[in-house]
Design goal:
Elements lengths: L5 H10 L5 E4 L5 H13 L3 E5 L12 H14 L1 E2 L4 E8 L2 E8 L8 E2 L9 E4 L2 E4 L3
Parallel strand pairs: 1-2
Antiparallel strand pairs: 2-5, 3-6, 4-5, 7-8
Helix pairs in contact: 2-3
């Protein structure tokens, strides 16, 4: 699926969040979004669409600001760094950013945060779940 096709992107949004899809209005805290990046990488991969609120409304974003926040999240708070592929798309005259995260062959990505303890996450349904190791 080419996610820069407006009709296909609208259909994806209408389907709602899932094990491989999450919406964010903006990325205000890179440390928090890193949990989702790790969970996607450790499960089946996924798409994070930024510029969509909880009611599935397109609010739009400044793509450069959001790309920078994603870069911080993926490189500073994820170990190893999660690789992202970002696509900008226009819907209803607003820009959204689609970050695609590839799945890993083994669950080895973890969250590095202020606790200094590695925390491994996976994706279940539309939520990130901490793996107890």
């Amino acid at each position: 699926m080419k996610l820069n096709q407006p009709d296909e992107l609208q259909q994806l949004i209408r389907g709602g969040e899932s094990v491989t899809l999450e919406f964010k209005q903006t990325i205000s805290h890179p440390e928090k979004i890193a949990k989702t990046l790790v969970a996607f990488a450790n499960t089946r991969g996924g798409k994070l669409i930024i510029g969509i609120n909880d009611r599935k409304e397109i609010v739009g974003i400044d793509p450069e600001e959001e790309k920078y926040a994603l870069l911080i999240a993926a490189s500073k708070y994820c170990y190893p760094a999660v690789q992202l592929h970002c696509i900008e798309a226009e819907l209803d005259d607003k820009i959204v950013l689609i970050a695609e995260i590839a799945p890993s062959s083994i669950a080895h990505f973890y969250l590095k945060d202020s606790t200094a303890l590695p925390r491994f996450y996976i994706r279940e349904d539309n939520q990130n779940k901490l793996l107890i190791r």
